[in-house]
Amino acid sequence: MQVKEKKSLLWLTIFLGTLAAMAPLSTDMYLPSLPFMPEEFGVGISVIQLTLTMTMAGMAIGQIFAGPISDMKGRRLPLVIGMGIFALSSLVCVFAESITVFLTFRFIQGLAGAAGIVIARAIARDICEGPQLTKFFSMLMLVNGLAPILAPVIGGQILLFTSWRGIFVFLTVIGCLLVGASLLFHETLAPEQRLQGIHSSFKSFGQLLTNRYFLGHCFMQCFAFAAFFAYISGSSFVFQNIYAVSAQTYSGIFGGIGICIALAGALPARLAGRVSDVSMLRWSLVQAFLGSLLIFGAFYCSAPLPLVILALIVTISMISIMGAASFSLAMQTQGKNAGSASAIIGFFSMISGGIMAPLVGIAGSHTAMPMAFIMVLGECGALVFFYLMIVPFHRSQARQKLHPREA
What we know:
The chain has 407 residues and is an all-alpha fold. The chain is built from 17 helices and no strands. Helix 4 packs parallel to helix 6 and helix 7 packs across helix 15.
């Protein structure tokens, strides 16, 4: 029985990790092809980077609807529908001849993929709480960390044999596999635990958005992911245009940094119960901010490639620790609002990335300074909201434990 339970947990972790990885699967896999796409569509770099923006904007908006719907209808049905639409929209992208059609279906692809992201986190909240929730989120981050490792490597190898369109054929296959896995998934939200009616689902948004502590996590992740997506959208141009590496070498570098993200993502699981989530969160934010300053200095001084890669590792790898600790802290008290809470957090993180993607290329494809500046701004903002809106809550809790009568 224990062996069966372990196998079931392993399958669930891989399944949810893949769903949670819809963002890197949808963006990272075709990053090596970005420098080649402006010529094919006859548009500028910022327009091509809008293809990232449309996907992330779709994912941000999609989560707002997918979360409440999953709280009302359960987790399984929205997953099946979402993954089906993801597969179909990916197939349309394969045959897109104009940038308008491509941008439109990238947006739809993001809308559909959002169901996987938000519902994966809600399912984790359905089955875990406390330190177990932190451990499970960490496991998801570990599986999720494989996506940015494998996606650009796969994309780079596909480009050896075909164009960027082959990458979207691969995404279509992934979508079909996730439809099948969703059909096999056993529902985790019992009918009696579901919210009654869509009005009740969206009403929970107001409660969440007036919760200062929860909103603090939203703003903090908004800025942290702005820095992360600045790296995502700008890295292919930095490495391939400025440092003149091939698409395959770039995918290897990107994958190597992804390995560091995955390794860092294992730390919260190892430390859960021994080190508080808020301490892990503080440490990850401070290191990410210091690392972003190092990145800015490296680009400003035209530092050699190894130093740039080291600075990126120091900074980017912290996103998995921040994500696991913050999601756990923000979600622990949400109960039946888990889907809505996950949707709001996901919206804040994705929309910031969508806004920042075209700004990275605003000065052209042969300068890294916009990317570096946005990363510093993002990591600084995350640290500010952490100390303004999250730390006071935990200090208040600590005082209540020491002096319960005063509380």
